[in-house]
Amino acid sequence: MALSMTKIAFGAQSAASLRQWLESHAPVGEARLTTRYMPKRHEEMAGGSLYWIFNKAIIGRSPLLGFMDNGQGRYWIRVEPKLIAVQSIPRRAHQGWRYLEPADAPADLGEGMDAADLMPAEMLGELARLGLV
What we know:
Elements: E1 4-8, H1 15-23, E2 31-35, E3 49-54, E4 57-69, E5 75-79, E6 84-90, E7 97-100, H2 121-129
Parallel strand pairs: 1-3
Antiparallel strand pairs: 1-7, 2-5, 3-4, 4-5, 4-6
Pfam family, one: DUF1489
InterPro entries: UCP032025 (IPR008320)
Protein name: Lysophospholipase
């Protein structure tokens, strides 16, 4: 299984607004996020995903399409314009992106399920803080 990465869903008001932003890029075939540095392990990420963090929990993933120099001294993280719901797991906020090993990646939810259907991220985060999950 491929290496993945995590990133804060900066600017998103909800999982639905993140999904809407991603899907608005469907006509182009990809959504692009800007980053300052090319990941050193980018070759290991072929077939991986970008896992989105919202409200201190991973809420979904977008398959990675690759990385590309944007011609302005930065790089684009290219992802498929869709949000696949995953089992919500707590994750602290961080700047930029972080690697996510395959063993640590949350499982996808079933078709038609949403992370919000399971447990609120705040509750999950509090239970994790207390060492109960």
